[in-house]
Specification:
The chain has a domain of 135 residues: Rossmann fold (3-Layer(aba) Sandwich), CATH 3.40.50.720. It is built from eight helices and nine strands. The structure holds NADP nicotinamide-adenine-dinucleotide phosphate.
Length: 221
């Protein structure tokens, strides 16, 4: 697994270290070279730049979770009559685009992955994916299973016209949950009631909150 595309090489190296195994940091071209699948997880405004750097994507499976958001993340710039995933597929006709992972907030992924390795695993949460190429969808379903979800085939790529607005609704819940926890943490800190929670993620310049405390407040299908 190759982590690429960040302004910080150190961040990519840390991600690779944390992922263990054969993971490493590399350039986009290195990530693409022998990959079975590419996970596109950049802001919509960066997609063109990524494609330009990527070069030849012939035959590649691109799993995208990128929502076609405007610059200040308040609205979808493509919706109803098309979707971000369909727009991407039109731009990289030589590759096979599958849409997945946009319907879950990233804070949830760690908990789902951790739960997968427990001996008495509860029922796996479902994760919807869609695409037009059968083999590419098989690759995506395997990835989804590896993370710890139960893959649910939602149909052809045009279904992302409905999934992407839903993902935006989920993202709004995530923003509200984070704001809520941030204000609770701030009042707890000012009242000196609690120590900071373990395993923090950055939630702003001065406040740190735990991943699991956010994911507890988020929907899983
Ligand atoms: N986060 C979620 O829960 C969630 C849920 C559903 C869908 N999505 C979608 O997933 C995508 C990624 O979300 P995110 O929250 O991870 O976005 P993000 O914080 O913007 O991160 C995207 C990546 O792009 C890199 N990047 C940004 N500008 C760059 C530049 N100029 N040059 C090189 N690298 C650059 C960032 O690296 P550095 O910042 O380290 O430079 C980071 O690794 C978005 O399209 C979003 O709509 C996210």
């Amino acid at each position: 697994m190759v982590f690429s595309y960040s302004r910080s090489q150190r961040k990519l190296m840390r991600l690779a270290r944390e992922a263990q195994g054969h993971a490493r940091a590399g350039t986009l071209r290195e990530a693409i070279l022998d990959a079975d699948a590419l996970l596109l997880a950049v802001h919509w405004s960066r997609v063109n730049a990524v494609l330009k750097q990527a070069g030849d994507l012939s035959g590649k499976v691109i799993v995208t979770c990128s929502l076609p958001m405007n610059a200040n993340n308040t609205a979808l710039v493509v919706a109803h009559t098309s979707s971000g995933a369909e727009t991407l597929a039109m731009r990289v006709r030589q590759a096979h685009v599958v849409s997945a992972f946009s319907t879950v907030p990233s804070e949830v992924l760690f908990d789902v992955f951790r739960r997968k390795s427990k001996r008495r695993t509860p029922r796996r949460p479902s994760l919807l994916y869609c695409g037009d190429d059968r083999n590419a969808k098989k690759v995506a379903a395997r990835l989804i299973r590896d993370v710890g979800f139960r893959p649910v085939d939602a149909g052809p790529l045009r279904v992302t016209r409905y999934l992407e607005p839903f993902s935006l609704a989920v993202d709004n819940s995530r923003t509200r949950a984070t704001k809520d926890l941030r204000s609770r943490t701030a009042s707890n800190v000012s009242g000196k009631l609690r120590r900071p929670p373990a395993s923090p993620v950055r939630a702003g310049r001065s406040t740190r909150i735990s991943r699991s405390s956010v994911s507890d407040r988020l929907p899983l299908l």
